[in-house]
Amino acid sequence: MTKSILMPKKGLSRRSALLGMGAAAGAGLAAQALPGFVRYGQAQTSEPIKIGLQLHRTGIGASYGRWYERVTAAAAKIINDEGGINGRPVEIIIEDDGTDPKRGAEVVEKFATQHKVDVTYGTLFSHVVIGSAPRAGELKMPYVVVSEGYHVASGSLNRYCFQPGITDVRSQVSAMAPWVSQNLGKKVTMIFPDYAFGHDHRDYFSAAMKAQGGEVVQMIAIPPTESSFTRYLPQIPNSTEVLYHVMVGPAVLTFVKELGDFYGAQRPAIFGFIDSLEAVDLNTPQLGALDGTYFWEGNPRYAQADQTEYDKVYRVAVGVDDNGASIADAKDISTYAHMFGCWETLFTIKQAMEMSGYSGQTPKDKQGFIEAMESLETFDEGRDHPQGAKLFNGKNHQCYGRQFISKVENGRLDVVHKTAIEDGLYEVTADYTKMSL
Q: What topology is assigned to 169-297+407-418 in CATH?
């Protein structure tokens, strides 16, 4: 476990001041609180707001965890440099869940009973979210995840669970299916990991393709811990026009190499989710077979020609260069398509706490925070939301934003299509606001 209080600087950089965005540089975790905390409002207590970061520090989600931690540190630093939340400093307390559902529930318990945090935040892998969320509800612990699964939006969790900083799979595939069907083909074979995240793709991409007049001709579910894929590839029908893959875990290089060997020069169009290549250098020799293929990105790893000022500031703050690698080490590739969700979620937590006048862990404060979150409707593109503008639905606790389709060419990803927010909207049937607190 790592425990760290992130405290403010007294001044603002010239660039940040010009943009009206606050201090943007630096992402290190400080070991102790520093004296002289600058408050931009009167706080009832000097005690910190404690936010528990449920981190995939080990297990198959470790590459994400590394960058989720860095982004959280950078965002918390800016919040503290600008006065904290309601005049109180933010303290980030980290516990490793091992990317394991059982340990995830134990981490939530530890946050509530030992660390006594105000909010638990940051969980990514769907099976860990699903394993942890019930305990958060039992403990009446606000549980704000940075995942992609449809689990929050579906209404299957509880009123304490939110996903305000990153879109869900159903929204993502609904937005992209029209482009895939119109540009790549209508007969699709899906290869996906055999757990909740993959099942969301299976269910909602197949439905979205059907709505476009296409069809999924084969579904191939693969255990996320699989190390070789040669026995699965012959299951791909010859009629396949588009191979849709959503691979996760440490064996992605093996998957791509075996896929290339299986097809050679004759292959269908290939569309994947960048989840399979987060933290992986596209110039890795084994990935040559991906040249000319397409990927979904939640946020473009490579700085694009139309890069916004907000993305520039965000990259500096989290220590990432224009190629999506660490400024300190070009071989350390970021999880750029997902990690923005930590940044945006932390600023959303701040917004809701300030709206509700959150001052402690009383039932009234928790109710106020949850109702404030549920009252949010829009997030404007800006420093706090550099990926882009979003809508938020207070009934199903889910945000909706734009998606990016990028093509692999010359060892980098270039965006070829941006969806509109409206492309990813679907009928919402869940209503957490009807649940008691």
A: Rossmann fold (3.40.50)
